[in-house]
Amino acid sequence: MSVGYQDEETVVARHFTLTLHCPERTGIVHAVTSFLVGHGCDIVEHQQFDDAERSRLFLRTAFKCGSADVDDLKREFAAVASEFEMDFDLWDERQPRVLVMVSKAGHCLNDLLFRWRAGSLGGEITAVVSNHEDLRPMAEAAGLDFVHVPNTADTKHIAEQRLLELVEEYQADLVVLARYMQVLSNDLCAKLAGRVINIHHSFLPGFKGAKPYHQAYDRGVKYVGATAHYVTPDLDEGPIIEQEVLRVDHSFDPRALTAAGRDAEALALSRAVRWHCEHRVLLNGNSTVVFR
User: Fold this and answer.
1) 116-133 core/surface letters (b: 16 or more CB in 10 A; e: else)
2) Which position among 51, 145, 236, 263 bears the catalytic label?
3) Using an 8 Å Cβ cutoff, are 281 and 290 in contact?
4) In the annotation, is 263 catalytic?
5) Is 53 helix (H, G, I), strand (E, B) or coil?
6) Nearest to 59 by CA among 286, 280, 285, 236
7) What are phi and psi of 74, to 5 degrees?
8) Who's near 213: CB < 8 A, 6+ residues apart?
9) CA 39 to CA 23: how far, in whole Å?
10) ACT domain location, by residue (predicted)?
11) Which contiguous run of DSSP H or E holds residue 117?
12) By the 8 A CB rule, do 162 and 175 touch?
């Protein structure tokens, strides 16, 4: 089936994004651009990265094309992908659907909601899920469904099964743990691999356990920060998408350090969500390539 470009006066161009990675070799970019030109597509953004250590090429190309269907483009591009051993995906302009999970802290949810309503998040928030009732008013004030799913040691399996049902019910492409204070099981991490983003504080040196900002204050830290990453069975060690660092000094007491940390968490998480929703993040082993 042809997916060629029709008359510009009668067809409104649709926008698409192609991402891929493959073994490095001559002719990859030429093959991609030739395919797009041959289908009457106009490239509007192109980025690539050659990983010399792993001998792999990573590529993201955004383009517009009239009267094209994403499934047809995928099917026809498959021949190019096979020739170059590409792992690829291709999306149309539909915004990914985002399911947000929270506990009691609302700073990350509030920031995500603001950016979503401002049209700058890159995705469509569909619902908020929580193991507590505290943030119901914030979610419902934004016009979103709020689903309370209790999660204790005795109910963890039931809670995670309910989460999978909600992912399907809301057709969620991405799950965001916006300070959701529960550890996902290995099984759930595997089922949602590459589709869950988490945020946590990060210090140098690292402080774990209760009251990390009080520990940081006692050690006189000069930086606070946050890390947004994909969730894997290795707790807080998944591929990093974004990190934010803020400089502090001796005048920051635990309360001020906590406030600075919340700012860092909100910034790092919102960027990670937007870049994922814009298909700018490609997994590279235990790392990521982020085309900002």
Assistant:
1) beeeebbbebbbbbbbee
2) 236
3) yes
4) no
5) coil
6) 280
7) -60, -45
8) 201, 207, 224, 254, 257, 258, 261
9) 25
10) 17-97
11) helix 107-118
12) no
DSSP annotation string for 143-180: T-EEEE----TTTHHHHHHHHHHHHHHTT-SEEEESS-
pLDDT tier, 3 (very low <50, low <70, confident <90, very high otherwise): very low
Which residue shows structure tokens 């990350």? 108
Q: Per residue in 194-247, pLDDT tens?
A: 999 999 988 655 777 778 888 889 989 999 999 999 999 988 889 999 999 999
Distance between alpha carbon 166 and the CA centroid of its chain, in Å? 18
Q: What amino acid is encoded at 196 in this protein? A: V
Pairing between strand 174-177 and 97-102?
parallel
When pLDDT is averaged across residues 152-173 and rounded to a whole number, the result is: 96
Determine the Cα–Cα distance for residues 95 and 272; give it in Å rounded to an integer.
15
- The C-alpha atoms of residue 196 and residue 174 are separated, in whole angstroms, by 6
- CB-count exposure of residue 180 (10 Å: 0-12, 13-18, 19+): buried
Convert 55-75 to b/e letters by CB count within 10 Å (16 or more is b). ebbbbbbbbbbbbbebeebbe
**How far apart, in whole angstroms, are the C-alpha atoms of residue 131 and residue 104?**
8
Q: Which helix (H) or strand (E) holds 49?
A: strand 42-51
- Judge contact between 167 and 192, C-beta under 8 A: yes
Whether the link from the prior residue into 239 is cis, omega within 30° of 0, is no
